[in-house]
Amino acid sequence: MMMPPRPVKLPPGERVTLAMLRADLLHTLRLVWAASPRHSVTYALTTLAGSALPAANLYVGKLLLDGVARAAGGGITYSALLGLLAVQVALVVLGSLLSTVQNASQQLLGDSLQHSVTRRILEKASGLSVDAFENADTYDRLQQAYREVGSRPLGVATQLVSLAGALVTLGSVGVLMSRLGVWVLPLVLLASLPGVIVSNRFGVEGYRMLRRQTHDARVQNYLGSLLTSDSLVKEVRLFQFEPYLLTRWRSYYLGFRVQLEQLVRQRSAWGFAAALASALLIGVASALILARAARGQITVGDFSVFVLGIAQVQGTVAGLLSGVSGIYQNLLYMRNLFSFLELPARDLDAGEPWRGPIDTIEFREVSFRYPLTERDVLRGVSFTVRRGQALALVGENGAGKTTIVKLLTRLFEPTGGQVLINGQDAARFSPRSVQREMSIIFQDFGQYQMSARENVALAEVSRLEDAEGVQSAVDRAGAAFVEGLPQGLETPLGRLFQGGRQLSGGQWQRLALARLYFRDASVLVFDEPTAALDARAEFETMEALRAQARDRLTLLISHRFSTVRLADDILVLDGGVVSEAGSHEALMALGGTYAKLYALQASGYAPRGASAEEDTPRM
Ligand SMILES: Nc1ncnc2c1ncn2[C@@H]1O[C@H](COP(=O)(O)OP(=O)(O)OP(=O)(O)O)[C@@H](O)[C@H]1O
């Protein structure tokens, strides 16, 4: 069964007006033209020329039939009949030629268009700041724009050309039919309407049904993805919740099925009624034509024009109306695409370029609120960290540690207060130039399905070929396992592509550390750098971190106090505010939150019965 296309979701609050549709249509046609003027023209011309062929075929067919009828009485020669046949064959050949060129130009035009629009989407996406990706609405727009780029823009162009073609067909067939009597064409047109109205009405109903189901369909899709995901299969098997997922997945299906059955029942009943009405009207038209035939006013050929013309007109009218609704649907997609492309991008190169190493970073009464939220997740945060110093951030989940990293690395800008670099307001400098002085390992670091070398060198692609630099970063990160891989640094990693070697969580983390070391930066940020590492690797990492920290500025986030205590300064965050600050010794002496949390974690290592304080871990 033909289902209407998936509904397009417009940005919330956006209403589509006729003027917008017209502007988007022109904009789309400009995009199509820019993608390939040659193929646009070829496609339009071949479609329009091909649209006149049905009428030409009908007419030559009529002449042939009349000729055959006259031949019985000797009213036409064999060679004249052959001449007509030759014209008919020529029309068939011309039809195939036109449709071959039309298909080829459509395919090439579609490919150029997909490439040019995808490139615009990707360029836009690469220029968007991180907060745009964390905004669900923007992210949805990006996803939809990217997902359907292959069909929608070309759909607008081809449907528009088809509409013009349908008018050519209707006009030319209409002229032929009008010779049979003024009422023939109106009756045939009228007979096409019931079917078209019903299919259009239920097309809209089907579309509405899909729209209503969008949310549930997403949930169902998600449930299905849980059962087919490679990364979750272990947990799903062990907890054995497959039946639960399957039952939920199926209950959504059953809900959809009830709605679909209702729609199909109604559509079939109405479709049958429409077919009856249309047959009745065609019957009336046929009776009138036959009356003229009985009076000898029309030929056999004329009658064939009538009979074959009916199917032609009905098909063309149906195509015309579905083309209009298709264009509307595709224009909604284009609206979504244009509104995504028009999103204001934060120019990451705007501002003075930062040059030279960073010696100090100061947060002065910094507050921050995520876009579209109503709560400050940081309030009045102040601290300074200097070159040669390591500052650790500790605090419970959600306290705001990663948010501080996002502000310090200029991925986000504070909503209150100031970040100062070497005593100057960071906002003066272009984010990208400041970021070039920073290197980082994120909590959710990337596992790039590329070679081991690329996984390291992505931190500074201009040095992709710097084999020595990569090797030294690998050594510093303790990622010696790379040498044991089948092709060493050139081994493709990950399971996504054929021939890739999957690594363990800790091995991926060591490569992410190597990536951090590969960039020659004055600020190093470690967000949970040892979470997946074994004890020895953690120890080695901390040693390396201490060694490099001497001439760099280091920020460290960790829930492991054995790591945190090595920092020169420790900032304790509690619900977005700094609750304690100082060295490990000072904070222990203070006996506040830090000391309590430290003792709590240390007690996990202590022999039963021993006091936690006595058994605090030492490196
Ligand atoms: N993109 C976002 N949009 C809205 N709120 C967010 C976003 N990211 C984080 N938050 C909120 O900001 C607060 C601080 O989050 P943050 O990630 O900085 O915590 P954290 O201290 O790093 O936590 P964890 O120890 O779990 O990593 C949390 O309440 C979180 O819900």
TrEMBL record:
Transmembrane segments: 40-60, 80-98, 154-177, 183-204, 269-291, 303-328
MF terms in GO: ABC-type transporter activity; ATP binding; ATP hydrolysis activity; ATPase-coupled lipid transmembrane transporter activity
Broad class of where this protein is predominantly found: membrane
Entry membrane topology: Multi-pass membrane protein
Group of enzyme by EC: hydrolase
Domain ABC transporter: 361-600
GO cellular component terms, A-Z: plasma membrane
Residues in coiled coil: none
Keyword annotations: ATP-binding, Hydrolase, Membrane, Nucleotide-binding, Transmembrane, Transmembrane helix
Residue ranges annotated for the ABC transmembrane type-1 domain, each copy included: 44-329
Protein name: Xenobiotic-transporting ATPase
E.C. number: 3.6.3.44
Domain of life: Bacteria
SUPFAM superfamilies according to UniProt: ABC transporter transmembrane region, P-loop containing nucleoside triphosphate hydrolases
InterPro entries for the chain: AAA+_ATPase, ABC1_TM_dom, ABC1_TM_sf, ABC_transporter-like_ATP-bd, ABC_transporter-like_CS, P-loop_NTPase, Type_1_exporter
